[in-house]
């Protein structure tokens, strides 16, 4: 299979960033080969420059970034020396590419079949009838259910996984020798991700292509990689076969990254007897209705379907589910950003679900939320100290006292009191998430809801923020409702785990029960889909 | 990079700013250089520019000094442009903010009200309003403000609609801030840059509207404005071109300068967009 002739050979590639960027070079002196019949994984955290080399291969470097040294040899040709026109001939025909977000990479107003046919058309191949026939064959090959119907569908009528399959079909249409996949599964749910990874692996083996696979997830690397290249700050820190890198990482950074992955090892069960619950959710229902228009009936989505659970003081309950499972809606109902249609939400005896208006506003301080997106959750125009002090100030604490408190809180979350006078944009994603945690703590809430609070962070940062949450839990005996799509993360921090699917609770139990001896088929499926799980099991 | 440095990157904006400053200077110096009323007849009518020493831009049909009219007119034009824009913002911003923040029925009601104004052609409505209220500086300012607030309301509403679901706004709701605080402190500051850009262009439109009203004889009879000067000169345009030419150039330059400044502000306030454009 692997005949070791490199299809793509990157030699000493150095790409300069425009002046005023945070470093001089996007990548510096990077060399690696991608051979026929292998999957080369380029791994790194955000800002490591892992995508830049791929952009150079495709001739799609962002404005201001220019190569200053090295060469990118594809079939003996230096791609950096090609004109835009020559590059266009290679793209699609000999080098295929799939992107992270399949919705934005497809034209929303064009039928799927026409978009695939367009690839042939761009390179002047076949008659229009042959193009349709080939598009159908491709859709069959990438395993889309009912390909004869999918070919006439618009992108919005397909699911995320199906759209990614269409993207793969387009990339493979002209049988390229090299496929570049830039984080192709990052936007997908775990079960879909597992299917897409399998598809890429199968297609690669059938066609003997070379694949350059860019990802931030070592789990994914363990699933697909033949060889691995670990990058950091634009440099290669480690390069080797998958087995070498994953089992015997030589560089400490690789080791740190591998250790930061939430593992299968579940912390010992805590607590014991469950005291009177702090939060008691009974038969919660929420249905979203789209406004009915002149020509379309109102559509209903059942986001929460008869959900009941309890949360004890000092306990951490994890809500796990894929997108569309209703887990976020549940969190938003608990903090009352949404109003449940029916059911009760009792918070230490008070019925939280029926409060409205000013009465609700006065009770809001009791439940706080840590948000998902560290970039959107802080007002760009407010200084950090003020952002934290706003809560106490809205509840009647004088400004000076609230600001002193903010300093203490920033100290507590490990940012230091000097942070009060700075603006959010001066902080990294992980630091902003710490600010978000400080803001949630500022009101001394009885319950904190963390909605995907670590999902947007790199693994090493994710581990730090989880450690901080764990520490705060011990120190302040917090009660936490932890919402996540990642079972591994949930297993790290939660005492009890609730698995949700399509608005219903599928399974609930202690972290150990759910993780180690799942009862429901769906939970098992979720666990099996975790990338890298087989590898880890083999290691243990 | 500082705000001004980003603004100065746009050459046109600097030129616009220079022209604008020159016009403001004209307005300030007018009472010093021409202390007498611009309505006073000071020389023989129809003097061509440069014909007589001291009357560089000539005199009009009644023997009034065109240069004096131009300088005093600068004051009127700028004042009307600025005040009517301020009034339009005072109507449009709160309306758009409330509609965009609350949505639902309140939004529907306010937007239908806005559309009511949008369906009537701007200029026709302004003429009717001035005619009903009697031409005066106050009625002209009000008329211009009333016809120009709907776009402001629409812009602010759109910004509020996109910002009200941001996580930081939801966080503010969760800590128990009142709707008033959220609107004023969380969302409004983040909508300022498009509002400032729109306002700079609205000043230009207001100056044009005032000129057009004065041209039709609906200007304040007690103040000399550029529009009035052109309107009064239109019958003699073939005999005395300078009577309409100089105020026309003044209007052109002012509006051009305001547009250039508006564009520069847009670049400076949205550094990301500016970088992509260049």
From TrEMBL, chain A:
Question: What SUPFAM superfamilies does this protein map onto?
Answer: P-loop containing nucleoside triphosphate hydrolases (SSF52540)
Could you list this entry's UniProt keywords, alphabetically sorted: ATP-binding, Nucleotide-binding, Transport
Q: Which InterPro entries match?
A: AAA+_ATPase, ABC_transp_ATP-bind, ABC_transporter-like_ATP-bd, ABC_transporter-like_CS, Oligopep_ABC_C, P-loop_NTPase
Cross-referenced PROSITE patterns, in alphabetical order?
A: ABC_TRANSPORTER_1 (PS00211), ABC_TRANSPORTER_2 (PS50893)
Return the Gene3D superfamilies for the record. Answer: P-loop containing nucleotide triphosphate hydrolases
Question: Where do the ABC transporter domain residues begin and end?
Answer: 8-258, 279-527
SMART domains named among the record's database cross-references:
AAA (SM00382)
Q: Organism's domain of life?
A: Bacteria
Which Pfam families does the UniProt entry name for this protein? ABC_tran (PF00005), oligo_HPY (PF08352)
* Signal sequence region: none
Q: Name one GO molecular function term.
A: ATP binding
Protein name from the UniProt record: ABC transporter ATP-binding protein
Give the species: Billgrantia zhangzhouensis
From TrEMBL, chain B:
Q: How does it sit in the membrane?
A: Multi-pass membrane protein
Where is the protein found, in the record's own terms? Cell membrane
- Which residues does the UniProt record annotate as the domain ABC transmembrane type-1? 74-262
Gene3D superfamilies in the cross-refs? MetI-like (1.10.3720.10)
Q: What is its main location?
A: membrane
Keywords of this entry: Cell membrane, Membrane, Transmembrane, Transmembrane helix, Transport
**Spans through the membrane:** 12-34, 74-102, 123-147, 195-219, 240-261
Q: Which family does it belong to?
A: Belongs to the binding-protein-dependent transport system permease family.
Designated name of the protein: ABC transporter permease
